[in-house]
Design goal:
Blueprint lengths: L14 H14 L4 H23 L15 H27 E5 L5 E5 L2 H11 L6 H15 L15 E6 L3 E2 L9 E6 L1 H16 L12 E7 L6 E7 L8 E4 L5 E5 L2 H14 L3 H11 L4 H8 L3 H18 L4 H8 L12 H12 L4 H7 L4 H8 L6
Parallel strand pairs: 4-7
Antiparallel strand pairs: 1-2, 3-5, 6-7, 8-9
Helix pairs in contact: 1-2, 2-3, 2-5, 2-6, 3-4, 3-5, 5-6, 9-10, 13-14
Length: about 375
């Protein structure tokens, strides 16, 4: 090999061989350079496999699909090969460029053996590594962690089956979904390694979420009473549910929405206290999901006036059964809540500012007074109506 040549690429081996090599080297000496190499090779194979599956979910069916096509994932896949070779070349050039010597005082010093290799080493260490190497490292950490959960003294222990407790569902649409939500399932170390890399992809890749999806997900922790294990779960709220607050940039453009568990819990308690009929609950859910009276009437096959009448009944129940602030009661019972747009009084504007200050969304306030969100914005910011 000449001075400017890179280290030779490692020949790809069968996955089963990688598993056996890892197990053998783990038992022999897990602190050796050989073990580091076989662990890296296995982790790299797992990372490649996960990325390929994400890019082509139907690969095993014999059909070619681009349903998982994602430019960011394509770049991650390329970066795994590129960065793995970069790291190998850094090790190789470092070995050729430098040596360790001791001076007369016994102090350790690094001495340059070859200036060309030193130049190559400096150039290589200036390169920025991509996200792909993070997936490889995630797989390595998971491999070492899984080795502590099974007997590693014999055989291919990475395929040893053991049981774990896991959630049946990680997305709960209703609170009742959480009841008896845990089960005991079989798994193996290598399966868990795959899952760890897949989670890393899901948590870190740039996803293009369709805004028309409209669902909000509330993150929470669920605890298994049997194993005391805590797992992250997500409660899916109704489409376009009006419980979220907007996060905006300096120009006022909405960047994303956020919702807190307190708001959701309060909403659940209030709707339960109202003791609504099935039709009232359905109309309230549609209204909270952002649909107007005309759209709700069309969907249910009833007149717009009927929808408004039901909403007025719900408002009356809210005033009677819930401990609401007086300004909110006035807003809900005011004629403007169901009548066409009219000029707002000074008291209305004062109540609007109070509602926004108390955390109500601009849409909720606008709907309460049957005005546009732009009008609410002008009132809150002290600008005059046009």
């Amino acid at each position: 090999m000449t001075k400017h040549q890179t280290a030779p690429a490692t020949t790809t081996t069968a996955f089963e061989t990688l598993l056996v090599n890892f197990c053998n080297e783990y038992r022999k000496d897990r602190n050796s350079t050989t073990f580091t190499e076989v662990a890296t090779d296995l982790a790299t194979a797992v990372a490649y496999s996960v990325i390929r599956k994400c890019l082509d979910p139907q690969a095993k069916s014999g059909k070619t699909s681009n349903s998982g096509c994602n430019p960011q994932l394509e770049e991650v896949k390329r970066s795994i090969y590129r960065d793995t070779n970069t790291l190998k070349n850094i090790d190789y050039s470092c070995e050729k460029a430098f040596t360790t010597v001791y001076n007369e005082d016994g102090d350790r010093q690094t001495k340059t053996l070859d200036s060309d290799y030193r130049y190559a080493y400096n150039k290589l260490t200036q390169q920025t590594l991509g996200d792909g190497i993070d997936l490889v490292n995630t797989a390595i950490v998971s491999l070492l962690d899984e080795c502590t959960k099974v007997d590693t003294t014999t055989g291919n222990f990475l395929e040893t089956v053991y049981t774990v407790r896991k959630l049946k569902k990680k997305v709960w649409i209703k609170v009742s979904d959480s009841v008896n939500g845990w089960e005991t399932v079989e798994t193996s170390p290598i399966r868990e390694v795959y899952k760890a890399v897949r989670r890393e992809v899901a948590n870190n890749r740039s996803l293009n979420i369709d805004p028309s999806n409209g669902y909000l997900y509330l993150e929470d922790l669920a605890k298994d009473e049997e194993s005391n294990e805590e797992t992250t779960v997500y409660r899916r709220l109704n489409k376009y549910t009006d419980l979220a607050g907007n996060v905006t940039d300096f120009n006022g453009a909405v960047k994303f929405e956020t919702v807190d568990s307190g708001s959701v819990a309060d909403y659940d308690k209030m709707t339960e206290a109202l003791e609504l009929t099935a039709r009232q609950a359905q109309i309230l859910q549609l209204r909270m999901s952002g649909y107007g009276c005309v759209a709700i009437g069309t969907y249910l096959g009833v007149k717009e006036e009927s929808v408004r009448s039901v909403l007025q009944t719900i408002q009356k129940k809210a005033v009677e059964k819930l401990s609401l602030p007086s300004y909110l009661v006035n807003a809900m019972t005011a004629p403007t809540a169901t009548a066409p747009k009219s000029k707002l009084t000074d008291e209305d504007k004062k109540a609007i500012r109070k509602m926004i200050a108390d955390g109500h969304t601009m849409k909720f306030v606008a709907d309460a007074y049957n005005v546009s969100k732009m009008t609410v914005s002008r009132i809150v910011n002290g600008r005059k109506d046009r």
